[in-house]
Specification:
single chain; 90 residues; alpha+beta; two-stranded antiparallel sheet; 1 helix; 2 strands; globular
């Protein structure tokens, strides 16, 4: 929440990359290349069971293939963090 927009985006990228690495570890897949991410997201405030939360909606581009409908981040069992490909890159 603190820092300028560039700092917050860098922190969010690091969190996203960390989540990808966690998924890989859970699937016993070794990531050999550096994971790179470009984000285009908007912050959204939501109430979940009377708790205020911040979530993000938008798009991301990464050099790591993420399966459709996999959950990334916190509260995935509640439907947050669902990923779906919108474009196929060559």
């Amino acid at each position: 929440r603190e820092g300028d927009i560039i700092e917050r985006e860098e922190i969010l990228k690091k969190i996203f990359i960390g989540n990808i690495l966690s998924i890989s570890k859970g699937l016993k897949y070794t990531v050999e290349d550096e994971i790179r991410v470009k984000l285009n997201v908007k912050e959204k405030r939501v109430n979940f069971k009377d708790n205020k939360m911040i979530c993000f909606t938008g798009e991301c581009l990464t050099n790591f293939k993420i399966p459709d409908y996999i959950g990334i981040g916190k509260s995935v069992s509640r439907g947050f963090g669902t990923i779906k490909a919108t474009k196929k890159l060559p």
